[in-house]
Amino acid sequence: MQLKKYPHQNRMLVAVDCIIFGFDGNQLKLLLIKRGFEPRKGKWSLMGGFVTPEENLDQAASRILKQLTGLSDIYLEQLLAFGDPLRDPAERTISVAYFALIDISKYEEQINHEYSAEWFPLKQLPSLIFDHKEMIETAKEKLRYKAAFHPVLFELLPEKFTIPQLQVLYEDVYSKILDKGNFSRKILSTGLLVKQKDKERAGSKKGAYYYKLDKRKYQLKFNAFLNFIPNPQLQS
Length: 236
Hints:
Blueprint: E1 13-23, E2 28-34, E3 44-45, E4 47-50, H1 57-69, E5 77-82, E6 93-103, H2 104-107, E7 118-121, H3 132-149, E8 160-162, H4 163-174, H5 180-189, E9 193-200, E10 208-213, H6 215-221
Parallel strand pairs: 1-6
Antiparallel strand pairs: 1-2, 1-4, 2-3, 2-7, 5-6, 8-10, 9-10
C-alpha cells in the first residue's frame, strides 16, 4: 500500500547555516561569504543552503560548507533551529544552525574564495542577512558556556601557542579583560599544558614560551574543567 502525504498540512523548506569560529593567534574571527542568490544576493551571510530529500541534517551541513567554502572534515555541532515565520522573505524556511571551532592557520589553504569567503573579527562584523546575527549571538552564548566547563577553546589553537595568545582568545570569547597573573596561574594549574623550550619573539623582546596541549590529559579532563571562568552566563 502506497503511503499518502499528510493531508491539510503546509509544506516548508529546511535549511542549514554554518557558524565557523576561527582564531589566528591574535583575534577570534568568523567566516562569512557573500550570498550567491536572491533575496539579498551579494550581502554578507553565514554559509547556508537547503537540505535535499536524500540527506540528513549533518550531511547537508557538511556538503554546504564544502561547496561554499572548500572546508571539509571539520567538526560541526548542531546548535539550534530558527523558525520565525518571517525570517526568510522569499518563502517559509526553517534553518538549523551548526557551529565549529577551527585553527585558521590549518585551514586557510582549503578556503574557496569563489564566494568571497572572508574572515571577520568577531568585534567587527558587517551587516548580515535575515536572522544570522541572532544565530551568531546564540552560538557565542553556547561557546561561552561550553568554554567555562570544558577546554574546548584549545580546538581553535595551533599545535604550539603562548599563554598570552590563549588569554586573548578567552577575552574575545567572553568580551572581558582577564587578569594576566590569575589567568596564567589558573591555566597552568589544569596540568593540560606542556612547556616548550622555544619562545615566540614577535610580541616582545623578552618573548613568551610556547606550550603544547597534553592530548592525553585533555581527553581525561575534558569533562572535569569546571569553574575556569567564574560566570559562564556572562553576557557581552
